[in-house]
Amino acid sequence: MLPHSAHRIHPEPGGSSQSRTLLIVFLTVFLDLVGFGIIIPIQPFFAESLGATPAIVTLLGASYSLMQFLFSPFWGRLSDRMGRRPIMLVSILITSLGYLFFGLAHSLAILFLARMLSGFGSANIGTAQAIIADSTTAEKRAKGMGLIGAAFGLGFIFGPAIGGLLSQISIATPMYFAAGLAFLNFVLAMFFLPETLDKKNARAAASTSHASFSWKALRHAARHANVPMLLTLYFIYSAAFSLMEASFGLFVQYAFTEGASDTAKAAARLTATALILVGVTATIVQGGLIGRLVKTFGEWKLARFGLLMITIAMVSIPLVGSTHHFGLFAALMPLMALGTGTLNPSLSSLLSRSVFVDEQGGTLGLAQGLAALGRVGGPAVAGLLFESHPSGPFYASGVLLVCCLALAMRKPKVA
Fold it and tell me: Are 376 and 65 in contact (CB under 8 A)?
């Protein structure tokens, strides 16, 4: 049972209006994630073409996440005051510019600046989650949050496939396509994305929100039951998962491209294949199953189950890599996606239901900021661990995930 403070304080939206809003948010996040998915399989090898070592490659990901850490709470709390729609529009346009500069980069310095600009713009997931929280009942919150997860999953189906195909033209072509896709997203959001924040709640939020990530913002959010535990889970889990993410393409190149005439192209193709498997599974779980799973098991049980599945997959990756059999490696991807597909929407739903409605945008943005901080720390050391031994990032991730699982097993508090 969740605290009474989490109950909504304005009337529920109508069914058809709610469905239309959720569809538009889904499309907005989907297009954003397709662009992101286009970049992932080729980013390590694009950076290597400019002289990057594995440590520098993973630092590139850390720079992207650093901007998300700094600005996720900023966007979320600004959306509590100014409205969700203008924040989404501005952030999407910034993301488009970041992709464009990425494709134009001819040095590592410009490449880092481009990724930081994209990270600044794409720090809007907390705002997208807040739109869903505005538009759903507490009982349907996890299903609504699952739409974002489904958008992530579909982005990882279409994005890597498009990136792998366009990279055959030139390594920069996928970047330009991602920039154009993001601009199309901006145009569609301009015409169709509605405002969901109640004006009364916007005025209330203006007097309590904090403009950036801070200990004061953390203390403000932590006064609610279960919020400290949930925010801690966001942080540790994100650090653990990013250790794997940052090393993923490099590990594929190391373990499964021996004998290839062009290891970078082979690794990009295999990485895209693995990510497509992740995307298909995540889409099925978060787009179609999460609502029924929550009704049957509840968010806490699903979060624990998700952590267990991810932990098993993570520690199995280096073991499978030692066989140099890509088919076995690919078989682990649905298991990992099943874990993330149940964990991510469950955590978002639990957090949004644990705070006042006028704090949802800021709190979800704060959580995304902490997650981004974890994604700064993970990649910052992933490259060094990989250079020491290619299995290092995965075993380090497994240790952190076990810590998350132990924390999640604690009984939640009732306010």
Answer: yes
